[in-house]
Specification:
- The chain is an all-alpha fold and 184 residues long.
- The chain has 10 helices and no strands.
- Helix 3 packs across helix 8, helix 4 crosses helix 8 and helix 5 crosses helix 10.
- The protein is flat and about 60 Å long.
C-alpha cells in the first residue's frame, strides 16, 4: 500500500535515480491541493450511507428481479451483504483518493473481487451499475454541485473550497473506473 510520496520514491529507486524535478513539483502540487483533497474525502465519507443506499436502490429499480424470490438481493441478508460490499468499495475509493494512489484499492479491495463474485453468483453487471451510480453521486459531492431541488428536505451543501476541482474529480473518477474495469 503506497501513497503519492511512497510511489515517487519507489519509482526513483526502481530506476536507481533520485527524485527528479518533475517528481518534486508533482508532490508540491499534491500538498498544495491537500485541503481540497481532504474536503473531497470528507464529502464522500459524510454522505457514504446515502451514496451507497441510493446506488443500490437505483440498481434495484433498474432490475426488479434482484429483490424477487431467487434474486441476488433476496432475502434481507443478501440485501445487507450488497449494501455492505458497496460501502466497502466506496471506502477503499476514498482511501485511494486520500493517499493519491490506487494501490490500496487494488491490493485490499479489487484483488480477486471478480472471481469471488463469480464463485458466489453475484451478477457483476448489476454491481457495475451500482458503482456507476456511486461514481456519479460522489463526483457531485466533490464538485459540490448538488442542489436543494435534487436534495429535498435533507439537502446539505458541503461548502468545498473555492477553485477548480477538475483534477481531483478526474482522479476520483479514475478510481471508480478502476473498480468498474476490475468487475467487467
Amino acid at each position: 500500500m503506497l501513497d503519492a510520496f511512497s510511489r515517487a520514491v519507489v519509482s526513483a529507486d526502481a530506476s536507481t535515480s533520485v527524485l527528479s524535478g518533475a517528481d518534486i513539483s508533482s508532490l508540491k502540487g499534491f500538498l498544495a491541493e491537500g485541503n481540497k483533497r481532504l474536503d473531497a474525502v470528507n464529502a464522500i465519507a459524510s454522505n457514504a450511507s446515502c451514496i451507497v443506499s441510493d446506488a443500490v436502490a437505483g440498481m434495484i429499480c433498474e432490475n426488479q428481479g434482484l429483490i424477487q424470490a431467487g434474486g441476488n438481493c433476496y432475502p434481507n441478508r443478501r440485501m445487507a451483504a450488497c449494501l455492505r460490499d458497496a460501502e466497502i468499495v466506496l471506502r477503499y475509493v476514498t482511501y485511494a483518493l486520500l493517499s493519491g494512489d490506487a494501490s490500496v484499492l487494488d491490493d485490499r479491495c479489487l484483488n480477486g473481487l471478480k472471481e469471488t463474485y463469480a464463485a458466489l453468483g453475484v451478477p457483476t453487471t448489476s454491481t457495475v451499475r451500482a458503482v456507476q451510480i456511486m461514481k456519479a453521486s460522489s463526483l457531485a459531492h466533490i464538485n459540490d454541485s448538488n442542489t436543494e431541488a435534487n436534495g429535498g428536505k435533507r439537502f446539505r451543501k458541503m461548502g468545498s473550497p473555492q477553485g477548480d476541482c477538475s483534477a481531483l474529480t478526474s482522479e476520483a473518477a479514475s478510481y471508480f473506473d478502476r473498480v468498474i474495469s476490475a468487475l467487467s
